């Protein structure tokens, strides 16, 4: 794992020393910026958005602590580097990942970088899990989505998950539901194709729109058709085959 980092120290020789140590002993760290005072350090951080900051504590004007306070919130790890051991307790209060004394010990530097990598990997896993939960929640919301179907004397509100398929007849559309009911709607099928395409429906034929979760198999005999779970056979248009193949493969 490569970690983007910024070094902030008021002495150039210290910046160069840390850069050299990292280049030799921690090649997984990529230095994307440096600064020699707190205000410039803040600008570099905001511009470069590093994952890790090597930060000197005692600097002329604003200290490293002052810079962190000015940022209010930060989404990077911090390794403090200072010549004064007295700052250790304050560093801990700022939840620094590590605290290194000058001159920097190579083994301690390597250990600190390994801690950063471990922390970032955990964060990445947590983010992936969070994204997965969001996707599942969105899918759940789609399952609970209803559409309005204007039938003869009323408007029916039907869950998309209850619609097996839709079949057109001129300017009318028939909706076949999971409970066996058939609703006749005086609107063409293409209007519903646009509405239902984000809910797992595919247009396999000029006259047919199918909920993919009810497809049992693709039968390639006698002109080719989709066999649904309830035994219904739905024809496949020749010009829809490539699109249908892509749609079904994306779900597998």
Structure in words:
38% of the residues lie in helices and 30% in strands. It is an alpha/beta fold and 252 residues long. It has 2 domains: 3-128, Response regulator (Rossmann fold, 3-Layer(aba) Sandwich); 146-250, LytTr DNA-binding domain (OB fold (Dihydrolipoamide Acetyltransferase, E2P), Beta Barrel). It has a 5-stranded parallel sheet with strand order 2-1-3-4-5, sandwiched between helices. Helix 2 (38-48) crosses helix 3 (64-71). The longest helix is centred in the middle third of the chain and has 38 residues, at 106-143. It is elongated, with a radius of gyration of 31 Å. The mean pLDDT is 85.
Strand and helix map with partners:
Elements (H helix, E strand, L loop, with lengths): L2 E6 L3 H14 L3 E7 L2 H11 L3 E5 L7 H8 L5 E6 L5 H6 L4 E4 L4 H38 L2 E5 L4 E5 L3 E7 L2 E6 L4 E4 L3 H8 L4 E5 L2 E4 L3 E5 L5 E4 L4 E3 L5 H10 L2
Parallel strand pairs: 1-2, 1-3, 3-4, 4-5
Antiparallel strand pairs: 6-7, 8-9, 8-12, 9-10, 11-12, 13-14, 14-15
Helix pairs in contact: 2-3
